[in-house]
Amino acid sequence: MSKTAKSWAMLHAKCPRCRRGAMFSGGIYNFGSNKIFDRCPHCNLYYEIEPGYFYAAMYVSYALNVMEGLLIVALTYFITQNSTSPWLYIGTILTGLLVLSPINFRYSRVLLLYWLSPKINYQPHLDKDDSTANH
Ligand SMILES: [Zn+2]
After folding, report:
1. Which of 38, 72, 80, 124 has the most beta carbons within 10 angstroms of its beta carbon?
2. Ligand 1 centroid from CA 23, angstroms
3. How much distance in Å is there from the Cα of 6 to the middle of ligand 1?
4. Domain annotation covers residue 53
5. Is 96 inside a domain boundary?
6. What is the Å distance from ligand 1's center to 39 Cα?
7. pTM, whole model, 2 decimals?
8. Count: domains in the chain
9. Which long-range contacts (C-beta less than 8 Å, at least 24 apart) are formed by 31-34?
10. Enclosing domain of residue 106
11. 28 pLDDT exceeds 80?
């Protein structure tokens, strides 16, 4: 029986406990249905382990935005060699972050649950096809 790799599970936004169930409904750019499930459809883990828990995802999202903003600035400078127009940089940052916002929404929650939630640990015995055994 093969275990699900952590990196694969994070990339595909799978449940941090069983690495099988999806965390989100709908596709990543499927606006309107890009919602986090209340519970893991596979192992029944309640994702929002405390009331308001996902407010903390805002800080993760902020950190992602800062990193992406710096990356966008570096790329913009690399491509255009422009060092005089602040509006070029403001425009590319705002456009880039808007385009990336669904990714930030999703992965800020993934990172929160995988890296910043000591209460949630990977349970290898849940990482299997039989989802009814451990409810
Ligand atoms: Zn699960």
Report:
1. 72
2. 8
3. 13
4. yes
5. yes
6. 8
7. 0.86
8. 1
9. 31/102, 34/102, 34/105, 34/106
10. 6-126
11. no
